[in-house]
Amino acid sequence: MKKLWIVILIGILCSFSADKPAYKIFDKEGVVTSYQQLLNASLKSDIVLFGELHNNPIIHWLQLELTKDLHTQLGQKLILGAEMFEADDQLILNEYLNGRIKDSQLDAEAKLWPNYNTDYKPLLDFAKENKLNFIATNIPRRYAAMVSKSGFEVLDSLNTEARNYFMPLPVAYDAELPCYKTMLKMGGGPMGHKNLNLPKAQAVKDATMAYFILKNYQKGNVFLHYNGTYHSENYEGIVWYLKKANPKLKILTIASVEQTQLDSLEAGSKSIADFVLITPESMTKTH
Q1: Is 6 helix (H, G, I), strand (E, B) or coil?
Q2: Burial class (CB in 10 A: 0-12, 13-18, 19+), 81
Q3: How many CA atoms, within 13 angstroms, populate the side-chain half-sphere of residue 122?
Q4: Residue 75: which of 209, 214, 220 has the closest Cα?
Q5: Non-local CB neighbours of 58 within 8 Å, separated by 6+ positions
Q6: Is residue 74 classed exposed, middle or buried when 0-12, 13-18 and 19+ CB atoms within 10 A define those classes?
Q7: Hey, which residues does 252 pair with through a beta bridge?
Q8: pLDDT tens digits, the chain, 287 residues: what are they?
Q9: Which residues contact 137 (CB under 8 A, 6 or more apart)?
Q10: Cα angle for residues 213, 218, 222 (degrees, 5° grid)
Q11: What DSSP line would sit under 80-113, residue for residue?
């Protein structure tokens, strides 16, 4: 009888703990899957694009856990990179990773995001502690802003040194990709006019990230890249540029969404990535 009550008590406790899950993982078909399956698939990939929601703490925790687990399996064959660091900060980043400068100097000289300390510093410090390469993959924001104002042509006016920080010109661009068409619909301009260059600014970010990923990728390794989920959803954005450069690459995409319920993946989120992470809409935000 005592054993029966113990079993019942364990069942009750388990049911309470399952009432408020922090996240669930679904495959591209919308079927619930596991973290272990995501890890296994990542180990078989060349490039893993981890699409995040920038202010979601559970997603950032999962990024760190996946990084740790991949490192356990791969050791120095793991390469890290992120949208959140701009290419012209790579020297400063390397000096920090190599122990040449302190946290305070990195904070003062690099263009760090507002949530750097809570969300990206743990990733960077893990790379530092384990002597992993960490690549700043994004185009400097000043150049993306120029494109948003004046189009791709403005990049031709920049000098040779500036061109070290973005993809080679000319920029390949498919205006018919749904991700860019959607951005064009969303982006307004003066007097209600659409800013036709807004999706081009997104494209130079995607193209630059793809360029620096490929520039630093080595065959036999896994490149784990952290980026906003929109940059790799529906196998567009960064994925389009990676595949255009090398169609044989094994690319794994992870997308992040928030839902009111976690029991099933909403129809609009199916097939947007190889794995989809869902967290509650009520999840605490980091900024």
Answers
A1: helix
A2: buried
A3: 14
A4: 220
A5: 22, 23, 279, 283
A6: middle
A7: 48
A8: 445 444 433 443 344 455 789 999 999 999 999 999 999 999 999 999 999 999 999 999 999 999 999 999 999 999 999 999 999 999 999 999 999 999 999 999 999 999 999 999 999 999 999 999 999 999 999 999 999 999 999 999 999 999 999 999 999 999 999 999 999 887 655 545 688 999 999 999 999 999 999 999 999 999 999 999 999 999 999 999 999 999 999 999 999 999 999 999 999 999 999 999 999 999 999 88
A9: 81, 82, 83, 85, 87, 208, 209, 212, 213, 225, 227
A10: 75
A11: EEEEEEEGGGHHHHHHHHTTSS-HHHHHHHS---
Residue type, 52: E
Place of tokens 């169609």: 247
The verdict on domain 23-280 having CATH code 3.30.930.10 is no
φ/ψ bin of 235: left (φ > 0), alpha (ψ from -120 to 50), beta (otherwise): left
| Spatial CB neighbours of 211, under 8 Å, sequence gap ≥ 6 | 166, 167, 168, 241, 245
How far apart CA 88 and CA 75 sit, in angstroms, is: 27
For residue 115, the one-letter residue type is N
110-114: long-range contacts, CB 8 A cutoff, minimum separation 24: 110/85, 111/86, 111/141, 113/54, 113/84, 114/287
Tell me how far the alpha carbon of residue 51 is from its chain's centroid. 4
